[in-house]
Design goal:
The structure is a single chain. The model has no long low-confidence stretch (mean pLDDT 93). α2 packs across α8 and α3 runs antiparallel to α4. Helix content is 43%, strand content 11%. Strands 1-4-7-10-13 form a 5-stranded parallel sheet. It has 8 helices and 14 strands. By secondary structure, the protein is α/β, with parallel strands linked by helices. It folds into 2 domains: 138 residues, serine acetyltransferase, domain 1 (Orthogonal Bundle); 96 residues, 3 Solenoid (UDP N-Acetylglucosamine Acyltransferase, domain 1), CATH 2.160.10.
């Protein structure tokens, strides 16, 4: 028999825990959105634009139900927040199409937009991030992190929903990429696998400060690079080579590489 104190303490946690929708419900909902926005992922086709409009009405109703379960944690009525989210979908769709174009232009192995939508983990992670970011801006608690962590578990790409990422964003391969909460990424940035945009310190006192770097537009960052610090700015049109460790800013049009040292004993 388990100790009664253990059971009592666990019971108190059960009755005091805030009620949020299950991760599976949230991830299924976000997946539904992507399947409508990008029918390449499914064989379902809609007969008319009116039918498509009705599908989005159903999505809004479903999201309202999700938000109703956590109404006490929202700043506005659940239906209003759901409406605000759905109304942002045309802009999210625009951003995601720029991301697809960036991948198609930048990856010699990419044969078509169809292939990118169906098979590229970078696109999958960015899509979940962009939807989570909208929810984050609407001050919905927890669920944005649930969404991006679901994508993280599928792709190995960890993008915090609070990060600010402009259009034409491209992650190639992607496994091991980490983008922190206060990172800012400009237009037309290309990143490879194993990159960290992180903080110099993990002190809790810095929670409200900018802790992660700013990457200006037209920057390429190669695999294994680590860029740290809220005051660190990578100037536009720069190239950061593989395995570079940066904690200070670099000016625009800079090329910086890790210099290997080979010692023969």
């Amino acid at each position: 028999m388990l100790p009664q104190t253990f059971l009592d303490n666990l019971y108190q946690k059960h009755i005091s825990t805030e009620i949020y929708p299950a991760t599976s419900s949230v991830s299924r909902f976000i997946t539904k959105i992507l399947l409508i926005l990008f029918p390449e992922q499914t064989k379902k086709h809609y007969a008319s634009s009116q039918e498509l409009g009705e599908a989005f009405v159903k999505l809004e109703a479903e999201l309202t139900t999700i938000f109703n379960s956590m109404q006490q944690s929202l700043e506005k009525p659940a239906a209003h927040v759901a409406k605000d989210f759905i109304e942002q979908l045309p802009y999210v769709y625009h951003l995601l199409n720029t991301d697809v174009k960036a991948i198609l232009t930048g990856d010699p192995a990419a044969k078509s937009e169809y292939e990118i939508v169906r098979a590229y983990p970078g696109f999958y992670a960015i899509a979940f991030y962009r939807l989570a970011h909208v929810m984050h801006k609407l001050n919905v608690p927890l669920l944005p992190r649930v969404i991006t962590e679901f994508a993280h578990s599928k792709t190995g790409i960890d993008i915090h929903p609070g990060a600010q990422i402009d259009e034409y964003f491209y992650i190639d391969h992607g496994t091991g990429v980490v983008i922190g909460e206060t990172a800012v990424i400009g237009k037309n940035v290309k990143m490879y696998q194993g990159i960290t945009l992180g903080a110099l310190s993990v002190s809790k006192e810095m929670a409200s400060q900018k802790r992660h770097p700013t990457i200006e537009e037209n920057v390429v960052i190669y695999s294994g690079a680590t860029i740290l610090g809220g005051e660190t700015v990578i100037g536009h049109d720069s190239i950061v080579g593989g395995n570079v460790w940066l904690t200070k800013s670099i000016p625009p049009h800079t090329k910086i590489y890790h210099q290997e040292q080979v010692r023969i004993s």
